UniProtKB/TrEMBL annotation:
Membrane topology, from the record: Peripheral membrane protein
Domain of life: Bacteria
InterPro entries: ATP_synth_F1_dsu/esu, ATP_synth_F1_dsu/esu_N, ATP_synth_F1_esu_C, ATPsynth_dsu/esu_N
Compartments reported by the entry: Cell membrane; Endomembrane system
Keyword set, alphabetical order: ATP synthesis, Cell membrane, CF(1), Hydrogen ion transport, Ion transport, Membrane, Transport
Organism: Pectinatus haikarae
Protein name: ATP synthase epsilon chain
Signal peptide annotation: none
Length: 139
């Protein structure tokens, strides 16, 4: 099967650079399965565990939002944060998940008493934690 180069770049490093058979990504426009020869595309990326098919197997990689550029031979994903499962601290991700959940529950129960809680920020933190827990198969 023909391959396409996938590069995932976070602000401080190159997280992933491999020739892959397919990348399955949640973009702001929906789920995309990208193979070699894909039409050029520029889109936003949602926080999630993206799926990468390589050498007949499947890998999961946590990406925490960003942008993706696709050309027929290359996918470039610029992520605000991205981690391979082996580099994910599951305990830290679980704590971030619990913290965000608790904030959102408090806000839902007594919104008038908790105007200090930023709902969008808590939702975004929850989505990042979910991406990490999915990538490590802990959710
Ligand atoms: P936390 O509340 O635990 O800091 P966060 O979602 O706010 O989580 P980010 O702002 O997305 O964290 O990431 C900051 C940096 O920490 C990035 O370099 C990211 O790769 C890293 N990071 C965050 N959470 C984890 C984790 N669970 N395991 C490994 N690295 C992580």
């Amino acid at each position: 099967m023909s391959t396409i180069k996938l590069e995932i770049v976070s602000p401080d490093k190159m997280v992933y650079s491999e020739d892959v058979e397919m990348a399955i990504v949640y973009s702001t426009g929906g789920e995309l399965g990208i193979l070699s020869g894909h039409a050029p595309l520029l889109t936003g990326i949602l926080p999630h565990a993206m799926r990468v098919k390589r050498n007949g197997g499947e890998e999961l990689i946590a990406v925490c939002g960003g942008f993706m550029e696709v050309t027929p031979h290359k996918i470039t994903l610029l992520a605000s944060a991205a981690e391979l499962p082996i580099n994910i601290d599951i305990n830290r991700a679980q704590k971030a998940y619990d913290r965000a959940k608790e904030r959102l529950e408090i806000l839902q129960k007594t919104p008038e008493e908790h105007q200090d809680i930023d709902s969008m920020r808590a939702h975004a933190a929850l989505d990042r934690a979910k991406a990490r827990l999915h990538a490590t198969k802990n959710i």
